[in-house]
Amino acid sequence: MNEIVAYLIRFLAGDDCASRVAYTADASAFKLYDLVIVPSGFFDDGVYAADSSLPKLPLATWDEIPLLFGRPELRIDGRTTVLYADLIASSYFLLSRYEEMMRPGVRDAHGRFPGRESLPYRAGFMHRPILDEYRRALRKLLGKDDCQAGFSGIEITHDIDAPYLYRSPKGFVRSLLDGRGLSRSISGLYGPPDLDPYYTFPRMQAMSRILSGNVSYRLFFRAGGRSSFDKPHYDPASNDIRRIAELFAANDDFEAGLHASYDAGRNPSLLEKEKNGLEKALGCPIVCNRHHFLAAREPKDMRWLIRAGIGHDYTMGYADTAGFRLGTARTARWIDPADRKLSDLLLHPLMIMDSSLEEKKYMGLTYEAALAHCRMLIDNAHGLGGTLSLLWHNTSFAEPNDTYLDRLYADTLYYISKKNI
Question: pLDDT per residue over 288-310, tens digit each?
Fold first, then answer.
């Protein structure tokens, strides 16, 4: 636990102030530090992993920020500020997905922990990166009122679930059934990919050029899975997939990642095989992952990513609601809540997924409400110097369609570009 506590202090106070902060109830040690956070007892034997360890609603607030553990009390002891708001346990709870470990029976039809069941949603702060708010408030107590607005980075990501509609034997049959005729169906199968409705990648790339600065691009490709939820199955070594990767490789900061299959979500031992297969297909190292359906089902399953050689995971958003699943807009190291160990696996929080906003089974927002929600999340990340992470699927741009997601993408990027000046 000492390593975890030290990490969380650095995460909240910053490397420059970490040595001035302690997490202790030992009053005799208070004088050695400028600020002491007093433990609430969350980590104590008999408390940790007990049902009683879960926060109770309604939550108290500290400095107008929801507080999961401890009490919103502060006092001065000599030159030391003593804080009884347990920001360490509160941060640990969110970053480790402790709640998901503690409530294994709460899962949706795909085995995922629903965002609407999460504490951030039930307590009404899913839209706020409260750990970053803790950081700002804590640094103010340490005399560092230096939280600058702006994005520390912008991550544009695309999951390649269905790279094409008609460029396969099954797609050829679909084309005929869609009434496209024999000649057009043959062209759809053997002609240039630009003719396929799902080949929207040049348009997506052109739209993203409105952004400047520290912008990165991640495309996640599948390399396995036999489940019906992994359809359509495609060959990551095909010329079409290589063409998509090469198109985005023109960007300065592009990286291909694994889109771990639905099957691999159910059986994480498949991750290494899929990762190795994608590396062979694309001819490049693969160190990034995002689970299909955002189905990183159990916190302990992250161990399989590490075993497979994955160093970065981009799954940490909820399918049914957009917001801050980990309570932060900053990259964080994964903490295993089962054995209380700190890993080197980096979690990249996902703020906004296109389908979360529009689909009736999820948020089911109108265009106007979806744009307003995106702007609110963007503002909250921007105001605290966070990294902005978006996921849009290529199928959201297919024509003809009855979706507003292509328009929403353009308007969201425009809004980001104006804030990023």
Answer: 999 999 999 999 999 999 999 99
Average per-residue pLDDT for the chain: 96
Asked whether residue 84 carries a pLDDT value surpassing 80, the answer given is yes
- Mean per-residue pLDDT for 209-238? 95
Report the predicted TM-score, pTM, of the whole model to 2 decimal places.
Answer: 0.96
Residue 249 has pLDDT above 90, yes or no: no
Domain boundaries, the chain: 2-141, 153-163+198-419, 166-193
SS3 readout for the chain? CHHHHHHHHHHHHCCCCHHHEEECCCHHHHHHCCEEECCCCCCCCCCCCCHHHCCCCCCEEECCEEECCEEEEEEEECCEEEEEECHHHHHHHHHCCHHHHHCCCCCCCCCCCCHHHCHHHHCCCCCCCHHHHHHHHHHHHCCCCCCCCCCCEEEEEEEECCCCCCCCHHHHHHHHHCCCCHHHHHHHHHCCHHHCCCCCHHHHHHHHCCCCCCEEEEEEECCCCCCHHHCCCCCCCCHHHHHHHHHHCCCCCEEEEEEECHHHHHCHHHHHHHHHHHHHHHCCCCCEEEEHHHCCCCHHHHHHHHHHCCCEECCCCCCCCCCCCCCCCCCEEEEECCCCEEEEEEECCCCEEHHHHHCCCCCCCCHHHHHHHHHHHHHHHHHCCCEEEEECCHHHHCCCCCCCHHHHHHHHHHHHHHHCC
CATH assignment, 153-163+198-419: 3.20.20.370
Q: What pLDDT, on the 0 to 100 scale, is given for residue 71?
A: 97
Q: What is the pLDDT of residue 341?
A: 97
